[in-house]
Specification:
2 copies of one chain form a homodimer. Chain A is built from 14 helices and 8 strands. Chain A is α/β, with parallel strands linked by helices and about 325 residues long.
């Protein structure tokens, strides 16, 4: 990480495509003091960008991270004007391989050879995006999450021809933007996050299709329930706690078999070989082994309480349950 | 809801089975001032209950909801002693149909006819649990989430023979306990939450099995990413925002087709009929239609900022990204 941090942040950032995602990228960079050049062929961008920027300014002020001075914002008439003057170019055009490839070729005509080019695609493979580029080594995926000016995660993925230096520069740039970049080491469709999101989304659609639950009921189960756990610990660390003193290995051995029960519409399950059980247990030890289960419980509970108090203060979601409880204290 | 609230809270609660779940139920009721009778055949309960109760006291004190006086805690030697003296009995024994049926029969021998009996099962069908009971009308599922003394959600499910009155009493009792009960109207394996959890869990296991990501990487994608959204809005309300002014219907029509792409290991997808699209759009309107997209964005962002500030204060998860950003402000 030390070597990564020595790279200077970009001075000028070009945003190609300014829908909700591109506009939010622009807002994040402006709030980090970088000059931003926006190209979008649609007039809608002129409406979306100021709206998103207003949201972002509000959020960063509430977060106490507003800059002394924002970067400058320029709308350009051509891709050339934007890409030709930037050392970092983020493409956020429609999710279509041919459109993106064509835009990337246009970007390359103007961009300085030293400029890094990132695509916001949520699932297209970088190797496919870069296969007709003249300098494919400088293409990376930087897949963000709505709202991009607030959610820290960005998945960084390289293709077959992406250089290690480009990955490292992207990690550095995104860190400078206040994000938590994760290098997705294996190139797969939909990367990591959207695979998880699509599974739960499909199951949710089945619940609505089958008339089991409404959208409101599904959302309530999440935001009053396990969503609170996931905001701070994810999946495996929570289950490690559920495993108690036996930890992750105990949890997997105890609950693994029930995965074969026909309890959902999506039942394809990897075989729970000794190798897989051990791999998960070892990875979990590497991840959380520095804490005892009691310590993890205390960390989890402190985070849950403080997040719910924050939500109570906003009279929203799980905070409403706390408010009701408080009103009914004897 | 008004009629629900007229029911008095339980005076004495029996906890049958005091592993992590049963112990946390006990803690929640004690902190609500109710007397609790615990039966568990294992000596481990004598260790687990005080540990969990200590965690719960810490959390409720931090939440500012500690009671003036806790209820009394009694360990009993028999199911009879616990169930015979309670007006609410919560069963949290191992996830095995035959074990639970046998325990429920034992509970019935002692329990007063007016007592409500709830099972903590995370997926067994209430109709199966109650099919040999003498008074099956008073059995409900009350499926909680770890840590039970903090997470507000509890799924309430009735079987074929469960009375409407029992559902209503359970909803009232759990509300009194500071929870957000959700009546799962259709009886299905795994109810709502565990269907969603199992889908994402299966996909996560594939990612580890296929060597794409480690447990730490998967957890980071969640807790620095979409987990933050889910802690306060769930799935559909977030996607409603992503649909912009077109709302949920626009989102579904735009992104629905990509569900058929082979982007995950779990690809069975309901057909996106006009009827399903309209159903989702209508349910989403009923759920969130009182707010404009701009208002929802502001609510979302305020919640995200405040939760991340809470996490920053605890030097944990997404709060670390904010802390790093703050340290690098110019």
């Amino acid at each position: 990480m030390d070597s990564v941090r020595k790279i200077s942040p970009p001075r000028q950032v070009a945003i190609i495509g300014a829908g909700v995602i591109g506009a939010a990228w622009a807002a994040r960079w402006l709030l980090r003091g970088c000059d931003v050049l926006i190209y979008d062929p649609s007039d809608e961008a002129l409406q979306i960008v100021p709206e998103v920027l207003e949201n972002a300014r509000y959020a960063w002020e509430r977060m106490g991270t507003s800059p002394k001075s924002e970067g400058s914002l320029t709308y350009t008439k051509t891709i050339d004007e934007a890409a030709g003057n930037a050392d970092f170019i983020q493409e956020s055009t429609p999710e279509d391989l041919q459109i993106k490839k064509s835009i990337l070729r246009e970007i390359e005509i103007s961009a300085d050879k030293s400029a890094l080019i990132a695509s916001s695609t949520s699932g297209l493979l970088p190797s496919n995006l870069q296969d007709e580029m003249r300098h494919p080594d400088r293409l990376v995926i930087g897949h963000p999450f709505n709202p991009v000016y607030l959610i820290p995660m960005v998945e960084v993925v390289g293709g077959e021809k992406t250089s290690a230096e480009s990955i490292s520069t992207a990690m550095s740039f995104y860190t400078h933007a206040g994000m938590k970049p994760l290098h997705v080491r294996v190139e797969i469709d939909a990367f990591i996050a959207d695979r998880l999101l699509e599974s739960v989304w499909r199951e949710a659609l089945w619940l609505v299709e089958d008339g089991v639950a409404t959208t409101q009921e599904i959302d309530d189960v999440i935001r009053f329930g396990f969503g609170l756990r996931w905001a701070q610990m994810g999946l495996f660390e929570n289950y490690r706690i559920a495993g108690g003193r036996g930890g992750m290995e105990h949890f997997i051995r105890q609950f693994g078999p029930s995965l074969d029960w026909p309890w959902s519409r999506l039942t394809d399950t990897p075989e729970m070989t000794e190798e897989l059980v051990n791999r998960i247990a070892e990875q979990s030890d590497a991840q959380s082994g520095e804490y005892s289960v009691r310590e993890l419980e205390r960390i989890r509970d402190t985070n849950l309480v403080d997040m719910m108090l924050a939500l109570e203060n906003n009279a929203w979601g799980a905070g409403l349950a706390i408010r009701d409880l408080r009103e009914n204290l004897n």
